[in-house]
Amino acid sequence: MKSRLKYLLTSLSLAVVASIVVAGCGNNSAPTEAGNEAPSAAPTSSEAAPKLEKITVGYTPTIVLPQPLVGTEDGEYEKKLPGVKVEKKLFGAGSAILEAVRAGTVDIGFSGPLPAIKAYAKAGDIVLLANAANGGTELSVLESSPIKSVKDLKGKIVGVNQPGSTVDAFVRHNLIKAGLKPDTDVRIIEIAPGEQAAALQSGQVAAVAAPAPWPSQAAVIAKARPLLSWKQILSDGEYSAGSVWATKKFVEANPEFVKEFLAAHSQITDELNADRAKGDARVLAAWSKVSKKTLKPEVAKKAFATIVYTAKPDQKDLQLQADLGFETGGLKKKADLAGFIYEAK
After folding, report:
1. Three-state SS at 155
2. Reduced to 3 states, what is the DSSP secondary structure of residue 241?
3. Which of 203, 270, 294, 302 is the most buried (most CB within 10 A)?
4. Helix (DSSP H) and strand (DSSP E) numbers for the chain
5. Residue 144: DSSP 8-state
6. Measured CA distances, 128 to 15, 172, 177, 217, 267 (Å)
7. pLDDT tens for residues 54-110?
8. CATH 3.40.190.10 domain extents, the chain
9. In sequence order, what are the residues at sequence separation of 6 or more whose Cβ sits closer than 8 angstroms to the Cβ of residue 120?
10. d(CA 224, CA 228)
């Protein structure tokens, strides 16, 4: 009797132990003792990266940068980037935007390509995200001027929008191409784009150069003509006049957001191109709002006819502009732009 009781107790003990072992080997997601959840899987790197809730874009208010104009003034960025507040800061020059981007007060910058090219060549900390527009730059003289070719500018004064700018490099390149020495054979001074028509009329300068819409303004207001049209000044017009860029640090920290931003940038570009007349009207309205300036209808029509909206960067063109930077003194040594254009992973 005793041996049978001992047998039953032993069997019962083994059954209890077995049930505990089986429970311990069950689904790891099942609640543990006291109702605590078992640890969940670690988040992936993309899940761990905090989602940006606000960004700041910095740009110079010009119609060769249509995307930030429409993106900020029409609210297109926030429509296409749900949950992200997009703020803007306006600048007078690309060099100032570069300083702000490096300081972290601006996340994404828009300007002519040369400031970003110089930065990449010197420090490698800036990458190009996209293009904005091609064309638009012209070198103009009065219709009544005896100047017929770039060679005729010898001994004259030329006004440019800003020393060291993309426009300045184009002018210097064409002077060198004509056998002239910038700053020796031809004096180059800074004249704000909006003042160039008056400077031509007064005789302060023999020629002026700026991005659109200012050559068209000079044509209508001062009766100017292109000494070098927007196609003659470089590469038959297939040169970047506006670009988008950021620090490597920003894009590497926010790869998913950068993809979304570039998608929004491309969508805005496509929408503007879908109906150019309406697209140009939107760009003009946004530009007038931020610049507090207006254009006569004939000026606007002539200006927009010299611009091509495109988000696609051209490596060959960017390398050429880097070479011009070296040729004209903006870069101390030749730059290899391999790796300059950001490639989303």
Report:
1. coil
2. strand
3. 302
4. 14, 11
5. T
6. 69, 24, 28, 30, 18
7. 999 999 999 999 999 999 999 999 999 999 999 999 998 888 999 999 999 999 999
8. 53-135+238-327, 138-233
9. 126, 127, 128, 335, 337, 340
10. 12
Least confident of 37-46, 143-152, 306-315: 37-46
Q: What is the Cα–Cα distance from 271 to 273, expressed in whole angstroms?
A: 5
Q: What is the pLDDT of residue 32?
A: 36
In the predicted model, is pLDDT for residue 269 greater than 60? yes
Contacts of 272 (CB under 8 A, 6+ apart): 66, 67, 70, 279, 280, 282, 283, 309
Reduce the secondary structure of 314-330 to three states and give it as a string: CHHHHHHHHHHHHHCCC
Q: Is the dihedral of CA 234, 91, 65, 277 positive or negative?
A: negative
Cα(5)–Cα(138) distance, integer angstroms = 108
The per-residue pLDDT for 220 is: 96
Q: For 276-300, write each residue's pLDDT tens digit.
A: 999 999 999 999 999 999 999 999 9
What is the pLDDT, as a whole number, of residue 50? 72
Decide: 337 and 245 in contact? Cβ < 8 Å.
no
User: Token pair of 161, please?
Assistant: 């929008």
Question: What pTM did the predictor assign?
Answer: 0.82
How far is it, in rounded angstroms, from Cα 174 to Cα 156?
A: 15
Q: Which tokens go with 43?
A: 């988040």
- Confidence category of residue 47, pLDDT binned at 50, 70, 90: low
Q: Domain 138-233 class?
A: alpha beta
**Residue 74 to residues 57, 68, 79, 182, 282: CA-CA distances in angstroms?**
14, 9, 9, 42, 8
**pLDDT attached to residue 13:** 45
Cα 331 from Cα 240, distance rounded (Å): 18
Q: Cα dihedral angle (107, 108, 113, 118), rounded to 10 degrees?
A: 20
